[in-house]
């Protein structure tokens, strides 16, 4: 990891910009879910992780209260992560099909995973002000991850965050403004945005997102990157 990314990650972990999120993440870490009563929760914001030379950036919504907020790594230890990492393994981006802790040996290849909001929000619904407080972290990530060509946005919230981040970095947003849809692509300066339904239980239990659809989105991302 570069010194710049390491410095950014330390800043993210120490962040206390959003009082509502600070209170919630720390309460969850203190009270805990019964199934994890014996574990020490992370209870802090989550940095991104993965291959610093990645050409694919996967942008999620926010950590799960008893997933990333417990384990200390985004998408690790929750059902959404079960789906995502299994798909990353099937499509050649990960060295193993599951992730349960920060020390489980998971390594990503040509892929970096991060979130629009770095703290677990109540009811999985961050406020727009909380999103805006986190956007500067994503701006710096995209600047430091110079190889990124494709931003795969998991859901409409992440899609909007990517558009706002690109605008803050001086890129011009296409007109009409690209709207989120599964499988939709949009050119955004040096990046191609790719929409994908979030692997939340709301989407996977209802069949709105299937394993095949998630795999197809990741294969599409691979096709979109330009070879060096």
Write up what this structure looks like.
- The structure is a single chain.
- With 228 residues, the protein is of the alpha/beta class.
- It has a six-stranded mixed β-sheet, sandwiched between helices.
- Strand 5 and strand 6 form a beta hairpin.
- Helix 1 packs antiparallel against helix 5, helix 4 crosses helix 8 and helix 5 packs across helix 6.
- The two termini are 21 Å apart.
**Into which percent range does the helicity of residues fall?**
25-40%
Could you name the CATH class?
Alpha Beta
Strand segment count: 6
Pattern of helices and strands = HHEEHHEHEHEEHH
Largest β sheet strand count, sense and barrel closure: 6 strands, mixed
Rg from alpha-carbon coordinates: 16 Å
The proportion of residues in beta strands is: 5-15%
Number of domains: 1
CATH topology: Uracil-DNA Glycosylase, subunit E
- Characterize the overall form: globular
Q: What is the average per-residue confidence, as pLDDT, rounded to a whole number?
A: 96
The number of helical runs is 8
Quote the distance from N terminus to C terminus. 21 Å
Poorly predicted sequence stretches spanning 5 or more consecutive residues: none
Annotated CATH architecture: 3-Layer(aba) Sandwich
Q: What class, by secondary structure content? A: alpha/beta
């Amino acid at each position: 990891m570069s010194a710049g990314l390491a410095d950014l990650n330390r800043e993210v972990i120490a962040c206390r910009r959003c009082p509502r999120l600070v209170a919630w993440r720390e309460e969850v870490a203190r009270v805990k879910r019964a199934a994890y009563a014996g574990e020490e929760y992370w209870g802090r914001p989550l940095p991104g992780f993965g291959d610093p030379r990645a050409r694919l950036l996967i942008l999620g919504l926010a950590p799960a209260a008893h997933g990333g907020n417990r384990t200390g790594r985004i998408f690790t230890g929750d059902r959404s992560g079960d789906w995502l990492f299994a798909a990353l393994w099937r499509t050649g981006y990960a060295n193993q099909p599951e992730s349960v802790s920060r020390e489980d040996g998971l390594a990503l290849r040509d892929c970096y995973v991060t979130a629009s909001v770095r703290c677990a929000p109540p009811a999985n619904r961050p406020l727009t002000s909380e999103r805006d407080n986190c956007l500067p972290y994503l701006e710096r990530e995209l600047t430091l991850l110079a190889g990124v060509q494709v931003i795969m946005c998991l859901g409409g919230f992440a899609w909007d965050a990517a558009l706002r981040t690109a605008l803050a970095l001086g890129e011009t947003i296409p007109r009409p403004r690209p709207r989120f849809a599964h499988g939709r692509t949009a050119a955004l300066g040096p990046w191609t945005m790719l929409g994908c339904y979030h692997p939340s239980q709301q989407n996977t239990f209802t069949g709105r997102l299937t394993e095949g659809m998630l795999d197809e989105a990741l294969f599409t991302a691979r096709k979109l990157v330009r070879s060096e």
